[in-house]
Fold this sequence. Notes:
Layout: H1 2-16, H2 25-35, H3 42-53, H4 59-71, H5 77-84, H6 91-104, H7 110-121, E1 130-131, E2 134-135, H8 142-150, H9 153-164, H10 169-185, H11 194-202, H12 206-209, H13 211-229
Antiparallel strand pairs: 1-2
Helix pairs in contact: 2-4, 3-4, 4-6, 5-6, 6-7, 6-8, 7-9, 8-10, 9-10, 9-11, 10-13, 11-13
Protein name: HEAT repeat domain-containing protein
Amino acid sequence: MHHGIRAAHAQATPRLLPLLADPVREVRHRVAYLTGLRTGHEGLAVRALGERALSEPDPLIAAVMTGGVARHDVAGRAAWLSGALASRHLPAVRAATAWGFARAGLPWTTEVTSAVAEAREHGDVLNGDVIEGEQWRWSDNPLAETLIAMADPNRAAEICLRLTQSEDEDSAECGAIAAVALLEEHPHAYPAFGPAIAATRAHRGTHIRSYADDLDALISAADEGDHTVH
């Protein structure tokens, strides 16, 4: 069955690509999502997605297109992602580009770190927003994946703090979830996360405050590990 689906997808891809510029928002979104999958025409797909992503007016669809470029392992992908970091592009594109760097294991630079921070400051959290019931993203936790790849716990903790202080509950929950994932990955970085944990505990949303218990448990485990080592 999967072989048949892939064959049909490969046959349809060249005819689907022009729809990346369709005037209907939902059409562009669905075609961008499909094109980011394995198509049998990866090089063609990356060129089409890359051309459209940088002119797409809808931030979330532009992020879908950028994520699609990142998922295809083809020559020229890294160069395109580097160019997409330019400040003239949408914050959503730059945020998705940073995730692409993380996914592809590309060298992390200060430009990529800045793209992550600035995208969140502009409100393009990209933490699981949906378009017509479908997620834009290619990851269960794109923000955490990106922040872990930064290898800079202090800067990552600052971004989590900004999010958890947000009045927008989706953004605050995104920050709390990312903090949990980061402390699981880097347990000894917990001192940097104190302010983010405090903001989580003080948030007006009950379900967001519940993440403070998870964070406290991770810190306790890290403390016990330190004592064991000593």
